Amino acid sequence: MSTDTRMAPIDPALAKRVGRTWSLTVVGAQDVAPRMRRVQFTGPELAEFSPRPGQEIILLLPQQSDEPLRRHYTIRHFDPAQKLLDVDFVLHGDSPAVRWAGSAQKGDALNVMGPRGRITMVPEAAWHLFAGDDTALPAIFSMVQALSAQAKVQVFLEVGDESDRQALDGGANATLEWLYRRGTRSDESLLLIERVAAFPLPDGAGHAYVLGETRKVRALRQELIARGLDREQISAEGYWRPGRVGGHDHILDPGMEQRRPG
Ligand SMILES: Cc1cc2nc3c(=O)[nH]c(=O)nc-3n(C[C@H](O)[C@H](O)[C@H](O)COP(=O)(O)OP(=O)(O)OC[C@H]3O[C@@H](n4cnc5c(N)ncnc54)[C@H](O)[C@@H]3O)c2cc1C
User: Fold this and answer.
1) According to the CATH classification, is domain 128-260 in 3.40.50.300?
2) What would the pLDDT profile of 140-178 be if each residue is shown by its tens digit?
3) Strand, helix or coil at 71?
4) What ligand 1 atom has the least distance to the C-alpha of 244?
């Protein structure tokens, strides 16, 4: 099925914030785990696309009779020579992005904006602590894979169960620990927070990256600040939360937070 991607003109202020629009075509789609679907795209102009590891694009999901819906998705992998871009979708329920990924087929067209996002890895850090849920797996893996083999890296990933595991090849020689919710709702699970709280932080000026469900990310950031990390040593972003549609949450100190529209 080919998708009509005609769009209403994009608000210039939005375009300034989120970058250029790219016309992409689906090359293929496959499940990389029972609850994770990878869609591979190409585009004639992708030779000019230069994302930093961990950055995202905004998908402009076409609607029958309305403006496209905007959804943020990490650039899981980008191959500039082949002009191939991979995006991994968590199949969390019956929602626009999940439906789009579920029916994506070779030849489908999609407009996206970007690359955008202030979070990328901090290569000079003495150590790196990555903590996130399923939605953060693409960002965490792409940052870890971009770090040098000598980098000292600990990763905690909270997922449903063993079937959600993926191989982490290349880049840093990371210690990766999977945490399994086993039926507990993702936004109610405390596993990641408890595990990070029990993790002894290494010496030196390290950097922590906490990504995923907003309430969990907020609690993780507060935990790390309480344990002595400076705010500048923490990159935190709320990727989703119950009831929120699209968008993202900047995680700041209490009373200072703002929800960013898509
Ligand atoms: C910078 C950034 C990068 C991201 N990268 C990825 C990525 O690589 N892969 C990925 O899968 N997601 C990623 N996300 C999260 C994704 O944008 C959201 O999950 C988004 O809401 C999905 O859109 P949707 O159309 O499926 O659901 P929406 O229409 O936005 O939401 C419908 C309902 O589903 C709930 N919901 C949304 N996401 C989840 C979830 N994961 N689990 C349970 N309930 C959920 C919402 O709270 C809402 O109630 C990223 C988000 C940000 C901000």
Assistant:
1) no
2) 999 999 999 999 999 999 999 999 999 999 999 999 999
3) strand
4) 47
